[in-house]
Amino acid sequence: MVLTIDIPEKLLARAEVLGRPVAELVSQAIDDIVEGPLPPGFVRLGTSTKTPAEAAADIRDIASRHTLRGIKIKDLIEEGRRN
Questions:
Q1: Where are the domains of the chain?
Q2: What is the pLDDT of residue 47?
Q3: What's the rounded Cα separation, in Å, for the pair 2 and 5?
Q4: Which of 30, 42, 44, 74 could be 38's S-S partner, Cβ–Cβ 3.0 to 4.6 Å?
């Protein structure tokens, strides 16, 4: 895939100081993002080893244990359908 981006002057200066090509720095930054930890609530697509049935079972299990001030997720869904 080819992607065209505007390189900030700050990155150009850093590449010059380090004596490395800008493309190498950008490539390394992308690798770090791909391999590094994700912020809370984010997931990597395509990395799950669960089957759809296992994932659905996990969702049902979580929904049965978590409430919002005593209101179950199922009840919130039903309330949304009524409105």
A1: 7-47, 50-83
A2: 65
A3: 10
A4: 42
Residues 6+ apart with CB under 8 A from 50: 58
Given a cut of 80, whether residue 14 has pLDDT beyond it is: yes
CA separation, residue 76 to residues 60, 68, 73 (Å): 14, 9, 5
Looking at residue 6, its amino acid is: D
What is the residue-wise DSSP string for 48-69? --S-HHHHHHHHHHHHHH-EET
Partners of residue 9 on adjacent β-strands = none
Cα(76)–Cα(74) distance, integer angstroms: 5
Higher-pLDDT residue of 77 and 46 is: 77
